[in-house]
Amino acid sequence: MALESYFHLSNSNDTGNQLLTLPRETSIIPSASTRQVLEIANALAAICVSKPRSEVFAVAIHLDSNSLVIFVAENHDIPETTKKYLENVLSILEEISREAFIPNREQSPEIQEAVVESFQERLGMTILRQTFEKFLASFVQRDRTWYARVAEIKEQLKGNAELAASFDDIIEALDIVHDNALAYYNDTKNESLLDLYTALTIFDDMIRTNKDKDIITRMLAIVDPGDSNRSAMEVEEDDVDVNEDNTQRNGFSMTRFIYRVLSIVIHIRRLLRLAISTTSSQFFFRKRYFYYCKSVERSIIVDPQEILKKNSFPNLKAVCNKKTTSSPLHAELVVFETLLRFVLENRVQPYWVIGVSKLMCVGCHTVIAKAYPKVLQNHRTNLAPFTVQGCHGKMYRSWIAPDLSFTNSSLGFDLDSEVRTKTEDFIRSALIDYIEQRRLSESSVGTGINRQQRLDNYEKGTSQETSRNPDGHVIPFF
Ligand SMILES: [Zn+2]
């Protein structure tokens, strides 16, 4: 039975694009240094994305005293121009790092004092040029929905002059960014790009660092209850688009919109801060190696009808009969397979972190962050769990599972089938929860059977850990 069959179940009679959407999850990050490596890996992945939708990059890092290896994968093969661009960004970061380096400096300096403006601009413009099309897509919401939402918030804040003024400032700053983006779109001149980068950094200062930050945070918490304090990574994903079903579910979130516009600057600043940090300033001094993973396309057989025969999933239906299908392995799984291979061949001890340009889908997240660490608990190996950012909750029909059978000869146990089985368990359990929750939200009638009983029936207690990511594996950084 193919694990992928689960991804061909639907809760809708329309077998078109209605996908199952499970809850989002953000991983628990075991330590501050792991968080730092993860943020860098996420940033390096995010700054590679140039197309608005179809590109997803995954990045892993290996570091020793002399060398820095960056593993990069995309769902498809990586264009030569993107490789050159990434190598260029890393060499600019090295230059910035060398310029800012002062031996024995005790505290990391501020970006403004350590990096001359022309350097910041060179980095910012290089990255913004590459990611511009993706960036511009953040503004697709400037239509009737956008203006309606702005008017609605103004109405909502009417009674509070301070918060209303703070909202007006944000809208003004967003207008300037928007106009500069359109100007660069129209003339593609360097000066326009610099204006846009400057407008973005001013906006970023306003939202994230300046003295009115607390007022802005308070104001956003009122207009988007439950949506504040999002990280750039959590909003850097497709479901922010107005034309998706997300809109009906959660409404237009101003917080998500703002962070989506800012995400590229947030990533740029993370890289700059790493370049000038006193504890890690030599990060970019090392000899750099880039390992570009080849994309992987695999053919699989899916048989969702068979899944339904064996499991009781009321209200879910199979969207196809048994069929053979061929799909690319998602970028994070390509990096996952590559790193396992390198570790088992004793070629690297990587940071056990996989950065992705957006949150992971249900399949990849279940394999990497849940099933694989769970399987490792039962065996002694030199493999460790990976830390990742989290999961956006969507199941994609084109998803295929990794093939880890190459590990069997060196590991002495069947990692591949154990991970598959565990992944199936987690997904089955998540689907049962999903169906139950939908049922509860549709009717207020009692369930007759509680969650724990259901889990016992289906899962034998493995589900408590579902939202937990790798153990307390602490990474010594730099
Ligand atoms: Zn995926």
Automatic annotation (TrEMBL):
Biased composition (Polar residues): 460-469
Organism: Gymnopus androsaceus JB14
Matching Pfam families: OTT_1508_deam
Chain spans, region Disordered: 445-478
Name under which the protein is recorded: Uncharacterized protein
Domain of life, source organism: Eukaryota
